[in-house]
Amino acid sequence: MISELLREYIIQIDYNFTLCSRNIAIKIIYRDYDKLFAQLPAFLHTLQLWNPGTLYEFQTTSDDRFKYIFLALGPCISAFQESSRPVVMIDGTHLKGKNRRLPISIGQTYSRYVSIRIGEHARIPELELIWDHVLTQEAINKLSKNVEYRRCFAIRCTSLAHLWKIKVGRETYMVDLQHLTCDCHEFELDLIPCNHVVATSRYSGGHIYDFLDRCYKTKTLVNMYDSVIMGLPRSEDWILPPYGSPPVLAPLIKKQAGRPRMSRAWGGVEASSSL
Questions:
Q1: Considering the entire predicted model, what is its pTM?
Q2: Which residues, including other chains, have CB under 8 Å from residue 61's CB and lie 6 or more apart?
Q3: What is the reported pLDDT for 47?
Q4: How is the beta sheet containing 181-182 ordered, strand by strand?
């Protein structure tokens, strides 16, 4: 805001004045925080009605003050189940305290909500194969490298038609085309044919696209964004849950001394983004 005001109106203001102005503007636009938290049960229930399959759960303290919330939109869950690889990851924001260690309480919170809400309500079905032969750019780049590298291999078929022995120098790898495994384990991790599988597919009469997971195909990528997230009506038309809900109060936030930290703590083995 400081740089924008200086550029647009040639007005120089300090940080504290900008922060106070921003808080006043937010309060004018979004009204009082206490009223917003009081509407939370009706907002979540209406969101669930307008977007079937939506899951939510929030908890309050003993004095009915907001503690935390879990929310997963129905269309996002459907896309995760039907079009994505069954992988759940935490982003790059490491959970570190002042001692640069992982807080046990936060780890338990993530374990509970990731395992219960995703594990129980978002079962991943068996991913059937779709032979559309249209790949994403990432899959094309990696397959091209593996196709080029497979020329250096000595290939031998075993007594079983689906088992192949690949010799690379002094190393030997077994490729199982039936169970889609390779001793290098790159194939199982990436779900993209490694150079050993690429070499084997040529002699087995198959096509390398047949061994590629559907998550790398553009049709799957498009289907992920096929669902529509419905907007909500005016707040006056929100519906309270039928089982009732106690009033939710705004949390008591104690302002910390000093200016808030703008970047996370870097670990000893991490490289700064500025490098």
A1: 0.55
A2: 67, 251
A3: 95
A4: 154-157, 163-168, 171-176, 181-182
